[in-house]
Amino acid sequence: MKLLEERIRTHGKIREGGVLKVDSFLNHQMDVKLFQEMGKEFLRLFGDCGVTKILTIEASGIGIACVTAQFFDCPVIFAKKNKTRNIAGDVYTSKVESFTHGKVYDIIVSKEFLYPEDRVLLIDDFLANGSALQGLINLVQDAGATLVGAGICVEKAFQPGGEHFGERVAFVGPSLPELPPRTQRRERPLVYVSLGTVMHGNTGFYRACAEGLGDGPWDVLLSVGSPEGAAALGALPPNVRAEARVE
Ligand code: 5GP
User: Fold this and answer.
1) Separation of 232 CA from ligand 1 center, angstroms?
2) Does 184 have pLDDT greater than 60?
3) What stretch of H or E contains 224?
4) H or E element, residue 88
5) Which has the minimum average pLDDT: 63-77, 116-130, 233-247?
6) Ligand 1 centroid vs 100 CA: distance in angstroms?
7) Is the dihedral of CA 33, 177, 125, 118 positive or negative?
8) What is the pTM of this model?
9) How far away, in angstroms, is 217 Cα from ligand 1 center?
10) Distance of alpha carbon 83 from alpha carbon 90, whole angstroms
11) Per-residue pLDDT for 142 more than 90?
12) Can you tell me the distance from the alpha carbon of 78 to that of 124, in angstroms, rounded to the nearest whole number?
């Protein structure tokens, strides 16, 4: 899906430790239209598999899973990250090592919602080392349900997860062979627009830049001084992004 690849290129941010931040369209603010396109693609890939349940893991998989479930016309279950030590017998449980935080935690799904006759599609945003996906697979197996496959948005192919799951996993976004260093990641010129600290409130100027520079063969970064200033600009062309502050 070119759309997701393009959005990662224009709006993704590289962070320490091989983390790709996608907060402006996937993990925090959510672009529902983009999710719909991903949902349609998951339907194209798994639509003939008789899926009865979609299973994801909280929190970042939930939005994508819900939009996808509308196309499959089935419920979504999200595995909860369990915070209490005593796990009651009425849940399926598995362990997951968080890639982004490095901690091991239990995930649980109530036995009320997953049955042996279920045909389960797993959905998640990233596949990195594969721990989250393996945790979800364990829950499906414990329930005696059938695993139809896994639909993932982005594969970080420089991490080993993809090798473990083979053809059961399909990706709708890019398979990233590596995360380029932050300083070398641009293939297109970047137009940086800032009015310093004094003129930040000039929404009209920033909007004119967005309109004039939108859809060109470059990326545009508007440094607008505050989250409110960024929100005031409304929808922006795909090659333009507004930040409160630029590091
Ligand atoms: P894994 O268990 O495969 O190592 O990591 C997958 C989980 O970690 C996903 O549920 C995802 O939320 C998170 N994750 C892994 N890598 C990244 C990343 O580069 N960026 C973000 N935003 N999340 C990631």
Assistant:
1) 31
2) no
3) none
4) none
5) 233-247
6) 6
7) positive
8) 0.78
9) 30
10) 16
11) yes
12) 10
